[in-house]
Amino acid sequence: MPNALVIVESPAKAKTIKKYLGKGYSVIASVGHVIDLPQRDIGVDVENGFEPKYVVIKGKSKVLKQITDAAKVSDEVFLAPDPDREGEAIAWHIAEQIRKGSKKKTKGSSGPRIVRARFNEITQRAIREAIDNPTELDRNLFEAQQARRILDRLVGYRISPLLWEKVRRGLSAGRVQSVAVRIVCEREDEIEKFVTKEYWSIVTHLQGSKPPPFEAKLIRVDGKDFEINAGDQAKQFVSELEREKFKLASITRKERQRRPSPPFITSKLQQEAARKLGFTAKKTMMLAQRLYEGVELGDEGSVGLITYMRTDSTHIASSAIEEVRAFIKDRFGGESLPDKPNVYKSKKNAQEAHEAVRPTSMNYPPETVSKYLGKDEQRLYDLIWKRFVASQMMPAVFDQTGFDIEAGRFLLRATGQVLKFPGFIAVYLEGEDDAREKDEEENPTLPALKEGEILKVLGIDPNQHFTQPPPRFTEASLVKELEEKGIGRPSTYASIMSVIQDKGYVRKTEGRFFPSELGRLVNGLLVSSFPSILDVGFTAQMEVELDEVEEGRRGWVETLNDFYTPFKDALAKARVKMRDVKRQQVETNIMCEKCGKPMVIKWGRHGEFLACSGYPDCRNTKEFTRNEAGAIVVSEAAATDEVCEICGSPMVLRRGRFGEFLACTKYPECKGTRSIGTKVTCPECGKAELVQKSTRRGKIFYGCAGYPACKFALWDMPITGPCPQCGYPVLVKKASRKGGELEIHCARKGCKYKTGVDNA
């Protein structure tokens, strides 16, 4: 009978593994890291080889003592945190603590045998295999994590205090998060500088000797590509076309295949869950963690439903390939199964010891386990399941037909396609980041016509278009951008998305990221003072160097030295040269109408504003904008038809730290304020109006004005109903999960009514 201790990270994982190992094994959860750098001090001796000063994390002494006490009476200790850099660091630190405890136990005692157990899925087979084939701790993997931790600590604990001094307390900078903010800010710059251009397309509606009618688009004039930039030119072309005969000059037919997408890696899982399910990266990883660690499935007990969810490898175990191929053949028939398994190439530096995110067994299809899962857990599991199954199916096959049509000096083209064989599309189709505007929808099918036919013209439409700026990032497209540029690791994307919003650097509106004034200010200061650290290419190169540390091809101290020397110089210059926003007061020629003193430009929570230089005796402030020449334009408070409930004076729209609000025009004599109303009656109490409110982090929501007596609230903008489907009195406007277009939804939980804004 073995006398072994197994250490994992989470209680849920511990419970599942204990069931598989049985008697002779104690399983303890460390609940994440137990050792880390100190919270209130940089904890790194930069003068002596970047020696870290690790301490026991506050609140973890009890669990650490439990682990070391259990290790003293065990023959073997299996360190089984997650199979990645973070997991290796947890294992390494726990091993060091156990060895220290063993030395104190008896003089000269070597203590228990300490080994590493790695597994990518929590199944009985995988756990037994890991326990039967343990390995040594991986020093290179640990040192790669340690180098990353120290790098992030150096940047955060050196630059953040500088921002506190120059801007305000509470701000933070991060080696990766600040680059993410820069990407969002630069996209906003692109959008602001974008010059819209007009262009036109011409679509003809035609009919041949056999139905159905179809559409063809003008593609060449006089044998050359062309652009139509004005309506007059479009009308001229239409006029010419109306006088021409339309001849079907050539027909092309070909078979086109569409191949399935690979099984999920972490970044792709986050992107698809955002597109298809509307989940944030943080929510996706939280739900995936639960599915990985184990879900109670009735009499079977706790079962891990998916493999490890932090991975950049598309590798699939041969046993899983055999299982899914048998499932496909049984469920969809042999014609849906390729002769050989589909193999996908992982990106450079992917850890091939990991697997893609997939179901642990085909014995747990979504429909059989859904009753044991929460709604969102079930939706994510269904997504992972379908993507994995589809990845091993045959391509979809389309019959594609093209018509080239001659009309004098004009050439038009019509295309159409028919799905011949669904293949993987029967199970799964990948989403898109943005709904793309199409000048012409592809014909679903084209009629069976013959070359040389003269076609009947049913109509000619000149269509006006305007070029569009690049879209603002969604959570899915920002993760994709970070991944493609090599910024961060799969495990960091969720925290990046959360931090940049929590710190107020960006806000998410209708599913899109907008940089705040604060975000743009801080980004500008950091880019000018630390151009290398905020450079996308430099940050990506740091990831490459950390990978080299993991592979044993580069020393971790060497990596930190190469980074820190130029960083220290840049930091010294920034302390002197960085703009002091906190103390800066730019005088203007605008006079305070209350005391006659000049107004000065200051920086506040929501950006620049005008304040009386007579502060604190005079507290007059004004909002302002700048015109194209850069001159200050004072923003007059927007008038409303609302009346102050205290003194009866008109109210105006103003902006405060929690967003816009209504304020009395008699301020400061009268300090009456009110939240912005929506003119929608609360459906719960039926009395008060729903008003716009804001959380402490600036996120807008709509709550009952009768609060706290009525606590009804909505995240999306309410509009007066009723719902055509269930009759609920309130509808909401919200961004669609695919593309971000506004839709009208029923506000009642459980009702699935929705329609486009134009159809409401």
What's the quick description here?
By secondary structure, the protein is an alpha+beta fold. The protein is built from 17 helices and 35 strands.
Looking at this protein, list some descriptive labels.
760 residues, Rossmann fold, 5 domains, six-stranded antiparallel barrel, Topoisomerase I, domain 2
Description:
It is a single chain. The chain has 760 residues and is of the alpha+beta class. The chain folds into five domains: 4-137, Rossmann fold (3-Layer(aba) Sandwich); 146-193 and 471-577, Topoisomerase I, domain 2 (Orthogonal Bundle), CATH 1.10.460; 198-259 and 396-466, Distorted Sandwich (Topoisomerase I, domain 3); 266-391, Topoisomerase I, domain 4 (Orthogonal Bundle), CATH 1.10.290.10; 586-716, no CATH class. It has a six-stranded antiparallel β-barrel with strand order 9-10-15-14-11-16. Strands 19-20-21-22-23 form a five-stranded antiparallel β-sheet. A hairpin with a 5-residue loop joins β12 (295-296) and β13. α6 (177-193) crosses α14 (493-502). 34% of the residues are buried.
Determine the structural class based on helices, strands and strand pairing.
Answer: alpha+beta
Highest-level CATH class of the largest domain:
Mainly Alpha
What does the average pLDDT come to? 90
Compute the number of structural domains.
5
CATH architecture of the largest domain: Orthogonal Bundle
Largest sheet descriptor: 6 strands, antiparallel, barrel
Task: Give the number of DSSP strands.
Answer: 35
> What percentage of the residues does DSSP assign to strands (E)?
25-35%
Termini separation: 70 Å
Structure annotation, total helices: 17
Question: Which segments are poorly predicted (pLDDT under 50) over 5 or more consecutive residues?
Answer: 436-441
Estimate percent helicity.
25-40%
Strand order of the largest sheet: 9-10-15-14-11-16
